[in-house]
What we know:
This protein has helices spanning 2-26, 32-45, 65-71, 79-105, 109-125, 127-135, 139-150, 161-169, 175-182, 186-206, 208-215, 236-243, 250-274, 278-292, 302-312, 317-331, 334-338, 345-352, 354-365, 380-402, 434-440, 522-528, and strands at residues 415-416, 446-452, 457-463, 469-473, 481-482, 486-489, 492-499, 506-510, 516-520. The protein is of the alpha+beta class. Among the domains are: 228-371 and 378-410, no CATH class; 415-528, Immunoglobulins (Immunoglobulin-like). The strands form two sheets. Strands 1, 2, 3, 6 and 7 form a five-stranded antiparallel beta sheet that branches. The N and C termini lie far apart (60 Å).
Amino acid sequence: MRDRRVLLLWAGFTLAALGSVLLVLRRPDRLSDLHIYYGALAHLRAGHPLYTYVADNGGPFTYPPFAALVLWPMTLVPEGMVQAIWLVSTCAAVVAVAVPVGAVLAPAGERRRRAVAAVAAVLMVSAPVQSNLRFGQVSIFILLLALLDGMGLVPARLRGVLVGVAAAIKLTPLLFVAYFLVAGRYRDAARAVAAFAACAALAAVVLPRASWTYWSGTVLETSRIGDLASLGNQSVHGMLLRVGVDDAALPPIWAGLVAVVCAVALLRARQLAAHDRPGHAAVLVGCATVAASPVSWTHHQVWPVLAAMLLIGASGATRRVAGGALLVSMVVSLGAVLGPVSGRPGVQFLFENARALGVCLLCLAGFGGVAVAATRAAGRPGRRRAGLRVGVAAAAALAFFAVQPLPAGADPTFKAYDLADVANPRYFFVCRGAAECAAYGTGAPVTFGTRTEKTKVRVNGVVAPQVARLAYYSAPGGAPRAIPLLAAYPGSRTFSFRSATMTHGRLVAYAPDGRPIASYDDELAAAFS
Length: 529
């Protein structure tokens, strides 16, 4: 029976892996990040600067030059073969990650085999691993290197080297150097720094121009990575952008919050390591990298999935419920699934930022300190009290966010309407017909009305002849959404779009020369008050 459970779990993993790979291969935009790696290296081989490459989808190469050296062999074979190898390697990396994490959950015997299989299966269906497969991302391999080194599973004389190499490919594992220092692993920290410096120096010798370009400025250009205010960026920085923090205040607030989150996480990781919990400690530091990085896309967020499974495997109802809630948020996009059913901006903000908030809480709580080693509470009354505490805490969190006037971040409900929708009076309601729309305009660049519904606000209006372009910004730091100007009736142009909330929205009208001639934000915010 026990062997059957293990076989069923591995069968589930295999089916999920095969199904995921087949779905990825059917996508027209499959492995788009891998395509960027391949194209950038081909661009470099042709004698062009590495960081001037831009793929068909607009994506540049954003990693340090050493990453180009590591990925260089892929250009020796056709891209289709690289895609097949990469997908298989990603699935193998998931299994390699599951082995040490499963060993943490169950130290020996049949339970360990079952735990490894369960971790692998859950990882495979989680959103972060699916994102790694879909985009052909390197993140899962970086995590594997940092996990093995952070747990001390490599020979003693080599500990720290894997973290240094991983950080030379992608910078976020550098936080593990701080962890080594805090935990008293000074030689490991020295080896990590030496390995990082050696890799960077090697890249500087082989690719001097690319190295100078990257380290002299490109490393700080986070705008190259994408729209940092979008929901995919579940870091503290991304959450602050969606809150609408002022541009001038954003850097110190972000730095202060990250410093607190990382400091507490590192101290709690040291505590866990001192109590012979190196697996929990390494995963906690990995979660801190997700919170601290300026950008943490979905494929970066494998660490919280591991943390969720460690919580579920711990003793105590509170930790298990917390782990289950975190795991659900890592498998399902709560912002997309639950956000539209909420009529309160604060609750929608909670759903959309559930992963970022969960990671921050985990870093601060640290698996409940060393309580992961505690024995199970005996007796039904204890479990009842724990369940009551969990329920009260959950209700308090929902009540707190329900009264917050926070913005919906990347606004998954946003939609701009076109000519085919003009006949719908629900979308176009300020005027109907040429004469009515001509009379509606008051001579201002933009004249509009709003209509509030349960889960969204609609904006419909008319623009003056001097307006060449109309754009809507749903959150600070985000890319503008183009609003079509429709010549639905002779002599006037109208527009219509919807958004989840206008609390931090801004509508901007531009002249033909690209100069902004009018901006509306307070008027939009008033529509949701």
